[in-house]
Amino acid sequence: MSRPPRAAELNLVLCHACGMACDNSNQPHDCERCGAPLHAHKPDSLTRTWAYLIASLVFYIPANLLPVMNTTLFGSGADSTIMSGVMEFWEHGAWDIALIIFIASIAVPATKFVALALLLITVQRRSTWAQSQRARLFRFVELIGYWSMLDVLVVALVAALVKFQALGDIEPRPGILFFGMVVVLTMLAAMSFDPRLIWQRDKEQADD
Q: Where would you find the membrane-spanning parts of this chain (predicted)?
């Protein structure tokens, strides 16, 4: 049974800006729809993805060590890190909020770090191991990226609820800024990675 032709065999590339399939026979060439430059692969994909991933790992340390909020209830205030906030919500019976913050703040970033590092290392080694599964892993990383700011939204809602009921006050602390940087950088890392490199088998440099 003959297979259908690949896009590369037909000199077709996908525009990174608007998603249009364009003829890339005469290089260099721009997209006919939006005028963006066309590339067979995202330029410097591995280099930029590694840079964003390492930077996010650096910011992840203070994001977990520094307090993310200060809670004042009935005149007494205390700073809370991500984990201490999770424990505090859990001990007060708000296990659902604690679980959401733990998944979004601890589990999701850790999963993205491991998954992106695995994808980068296997692509650089030009591994043919589990290519279909790695492609699905990248789509999973993209999917969970949409929920990366969920815990920040939960904290904002809790702060609004506390102030609305006049129970106390909640103020942000530097840790929330570092965590926001982690979210942005991991999203940029996922956007910079070119999943087509998973299927690349030739001997050219992956970043070309």
A: 50-69, 97-123, 144-164, 176-193
